[in-house]
Amino acid sequence: MTKSYRVAILGATGAVGTELLELLDERNFPLSDLKLFASSRSAGKTMKFKGEDLLVEEVGDRSFANVDIVLASAGGSTSKALAPKAVASGAVVIDNSSAFRMDEQVPLVIPEVNPDAASHHQGIIANPNCTTILMAVAIYPLHKARQIQRIVAATYQSASGAGARAMEEVKNQSQEILQGKAPTSEVFPYPIAFNLFPHNSPMTANGYCEEELKMVNETRKIFNAPQLRITATCVRVPVLRAHSEAINLEFEQPLSVEEAKEILSQSKGVRIVEDWQANYFPMPIDATGEDDVLVGRIRLDISHPNGLELWLCGDQIRKGAALNAVQIAELLVEQNLLSAKSYQSSAIS
Fold first, then answer.
1. What pLDDT shows up at residue 247?
2. How does it assemble (predicted)?
């Protein structure tokens, strides 16, 4: 990557925006210019990048002139309003919100799983939901070896999925409860410290919440398997950072534990963590700050001849959000998918 690019982070002061800034530095992304955008509440703040103070600017309709790549993590309504304007200005938007994920014109990309989808973009590429990313990175290599027929997922989702304020709420509530006080809830609808509850995203008519349906619909789109049978139960737990998932897989044909481990040991973005004698398997505290999805407790499902069970943990802010977005940007650069601007004529409006 010899050429350099003009990059903007939309939602720079949030948990994912802060991680994006760190990753661009850590991975030495080829930058010629970096702009930081946020709402009026954060405009005027400064953020450190490579030892320098960068000014956070208030985002507006004309903010994206002379920008090649926009890494957006400012919420669905903001993305819907501003992403088309960024594309019209000549930028490619990698969007971390749910705004465009299920749009047929927008590729939904995990570089370890479906990198070729990025080449079909029309100016916007969607970053999948965090739980979807972590699961897909771990199970797609197995799907390629023995086609998966059914997925049953249970997630244990940390506060980081609801942002920096939610992480602070866990800390504050813990102190309040330990001091004998009633916990104060502002971000979550119920106390999260020393507690857990089903994911609080809106319920739908079929009894699944939106977070659960994201796992279903996004996985089908990414795997290009619209008939894949998937069910999920998503739970919010009192962990600061990194999500965990219990995954049950039903394959077309049996897949042995030994073969599954061999496949995963050679898969990008996956690290097997298992010590059966010590009963030591992936934990959120070990996954925090890590790029890889940690996978362990791989075992046969004793209730089904073609079934396999596994447990995984992954950093929701990192691989579940910011890292995946930066990897998509690297993919665009490596494959020269930013030079052609023909997509602008048919860009999403």
1. 98
2. Homodimer.
